[in-house]
Amino acid sequence: MGSYIVRRLLLAALVVVGVSIVTFILAYLVPADPARVYAGSNATAQTVARIREQMGLNRPLPVQYLDYVSRALHGDFGTSYKLQTPVLSAILSRFPYSVELAVAGIVVELLIGIPAGILAALWPRSWLDRGVMGLAMLGVSAPQFWLGLVLLYTFGYVWPIFPLGLAQGPTSIVLPAVAVGLGGGVWYARLLRSSMLEVLSTDYVRTGRAKGLSGGAVVLRHALPNAITPIVTQLGLDMAYFLGGIVVVETVFGWPGVGQLAYQAITNDDIPLIMGTVLFAAVLIVLVNIVTDLLYAVLNPRIVYT
Amino acid sequence: MRPELDTRKHRWWRSALAAGVLLALAVAPRGIMAHGAARTADSPVHGGVLTQGFQNDLATLDPAIGYDWNNWPAEKMVFDGLLDYNSGTTIVPRIAASLPAISDGGRVYTFTLRHGVRFQNGREVTADDVAYTINRVLDPKTKSPGSSFFLLIDGAQDVVNGKAKTAKGIQVLNRYTVRFTLTQPDVTFLNVMAMNFAYIVPKEVVAAEGANFGHKPVGTGPFIMKQWIAGQKIVFVRNPHYFLPGVPYLDGVTFLIGLAPEVALLRLQSGELDMLGDPIPGADFIRIRDDPRYQNQLVRYVQPETSYLTLNTQMKPFDNLKVRQAINMAIDKERVVRIRNGRGVVANQVLPPLMPGYDRSYHGYPYDPAAAKKLLAEAGYPHGFSTQIYVLNVDPQPRIAQSFQHDLAAIGINASVVPLASATLIDQASTPHKTPMVWSGGEAWLQDFPDPSDFYGPILSCASAVQGGWNWAFFCDKKLDDTAARLKGLTDRSARLAGYRALYRAVMAQAPWVPVDNDVAYVMHSPHIHGGATDFAHNVHTFFYERLWKS
């Protein structure tokens, strides 16, 4: 197991390096001048050219990349052109909010997905089952921006139960979490339903019932842990994706996470910030995937990594 | 079953129902609540905090660096310059005790400072601080986007080129007197000294904070920046030792960052926000504008801005004058204003209506598609030609570009629309021989200061017709350049303005652009915030926070 983890970490490092090179090249290939974005639309061409020189943007691309890497290894990820703040501190100051939203979103997904999935599996092809699956289709299709605005309007303005956007106060997480988790939640229900149906028809479940175990014990203690694997996979993917920043929901709600930062960076061709947010997301995705794979071994003792 | 248990369960449900009803009533839908008329006070009162919503965070509060119309009003809260504007476009002294003494035919400006103006860290402002501030803007290491405005100071070019540390044209005569010598007479120097780049900064704080000065600004201004949580909020509080009496009225201003315009509007309507920092979202605009409840909460103003369609004079067939003039006659400008839901006024010339030097008697090219088609044929294109219109990809700009496409098709020109993201559009448009037509909507020219020279030098002069410049028509007329240079030195105001009217008529005769409209903006505020129209929408400062008050 130890050598497995070491191998995975080395591969992860390679992936991150590859991502950094591709992102760096892409950011420079985009026909946009970061010096112009910094200087604003009214600065003269000559001023912009001088600023370009000062920013070191006229150096050859490999030189700029190696300079970036050597500083990054010392923890200096550069300064955002547009925000005029160090990239790393900008990302780290926003990361707790992204974590909060990611965790809250997943909690909503599980709170919706697990009960709905179990119930749909216990009464297949009933109105409950069809209703849940129909909602799954709607939930996955509903654009998060629209959903977010509808939630804000209904529960923040018409019935002012929750705050109207921003991260102010303990209840401000609720609406963004629902916007994040609603679509995924009904999708989890669908996943769990299929998995449960399979598991409920296995021999050991029938044995359990024959032994006289109550319905609840069979479902929750025996069927669910075996059926939960696809959800764990999806959860891992979701967590990795969410932690990198949920751009749309963060923008609608004004939730100050990394996603909002990444979006602004891209529209401004703010290369240091683009590099920072992309690398940050890449590292998280790779690490969370490793953790998820290790989690399988914990949940299912039959799985062994060599 | 035990009877007592049953009763308890029953009572629990009843309590829950009662609680539910009470909760529903407590958070009753807004439709049920009455909207009372706001009580307005007649004269300013002191106190209150104004909260304003913005989608994007400010880039910086460093006056040497901030160069957009979000930073500028905020910098004006924390800093002051030697000069400022009154409620209109007249220059008045601010940190200077009076307007400067001008000598040597308009080449030398001598400023005397007020005594006792203090930075927010307690230290008095002296002439040394003025010299330091301007030299800092010129220093290439500062990376100031506004350094070019100060090149008219003698010796400034050497500082910008890294050959000198200070400009020899900036002299400190004594503790409260500073003298500027220009390379040649230029009456716009007063406008330049009233710009944000010339707001006075304390040397010791800049040295201590370094690159972080923009996030920990210390100036002389009416408000102190107390707290900046990046991406969330910025808090300003009243400066109790401000050198001008009576202002500001507000106890503080708070910016809430990250509010999408739709959400900011909801907050304002529910009373949780005092003012919108971004425009009213397009989808809600007409409803808000026409709602009688919001009549005294909207301030409408024509921006000192012109949106135009550039015709690349260096690319065929736009190098042909008749082609450019024909296109000028083919564009339906009224339709563009309709697409903007009325948030614009038709433009027929380069300058916007509120700019000194605007020519009220000039009518520009008439909208006459038949004449346009004839002129196009005379130019040698009876069957038209194919071309592209580059445009910003943010609504409504692509729809406006499609309107032009429709107009051009009517005279035989087949134009395809190319929508691009902002940074990319700017890059392409400022590359020579790349973009035949550019609709500048969303990236149009907004004044730096209220002087007609500002619409020539940066966007129509030969010096700006280069890679990376904003002269997207790549228009270059040396004779007009010489005229513009001469006009900068004319001290006789009416002769000067007459000269600009003639200059811009000459530009329009060559038709490098189709001037389409001047943007109209609406500021929306809550009924508790008061001020004159020019306090909400000042020509130069936009939100003039020190003049606003709350009831």
A few lines on this structure:
The complex is a heterodimer of chains A (306) and B (551). Chain A has 306 residues and is mostly helical.
Characterization of the model:
The complex is a heterodimer of chains A (306) and B (551). Chain A is an all-alpha fold. Chain A is 76% helix and 0% strand. Chain A has 14 helices and no strands. Chain A has helices at 2-29, 34-39, 45-54, 61-72, 87-122, 127-141, 144-158, 174-200, 203-211, 215-227, 229-243, 247-253, 258-267, 271-299. The longest helix of chain A has 36 residues, at 87-122. Chain A is globular. In chain A, 43% of the residues are buried. The model of chain A has no long low-confidence stretch (mean pLDDT 86). By secondary structure, chain B is of the alpha+beta class. In chain B, a hairpin with a 2-residue loop joins strand 6 (170-174) and strand 7 (177-181). In chain B, helix 9 (321-330) packs antiparallel against helix 11 and helix 15 packs antiparallel against helix 16. Chain B starts with a helix and ends with a strand. Chains A and B meet through helix 2, helix 3, helix 5, helix 7 and helix 12 of A and helix 7, helix 13 and strand 18 of B.
How far apart lie the N and C ends of chain B?
A: 64 Å
What is the string of helix and strand elements of chain A?
HHHHHHHHHHHHHH
The overall average pLDDT of chain A, rounded, is 86
Specify the number of helices of chain B.
17
Contiguous low-pLDDT stretches of chain B (5 residues minimum) are 1-7, 26-40
Number of helices of chain A: 14
Can you tell me the overall shape of chain A? globular
* Strand portion of chain A: under 5%
Quaternary structure annotation: heterodimer
Task: Bin the helical content of chain A.
Answer: over 70%
End-to-end distance of chain A: 5 Å
User: Which geometry of chain B do the CA atoms define?
Assistant: globular
Structural class of chain B: alpha+beta
User: What structural class do you assign from the helix and strand content of chain A?
Assistant: mainly alpha
* Global Rg of chain A: 24 Å
Poorly predicted runs of chain A are none
Helix content estimate of chain B: 25-40%
User: Overall pLDDT of chain B, averaged?
Assistant: 91
What is the C-alpha radius of gyration of chain B, as a whole number of Å? Answer: 27 Å
What share of residues are in beta strands of chain B?
15-25%
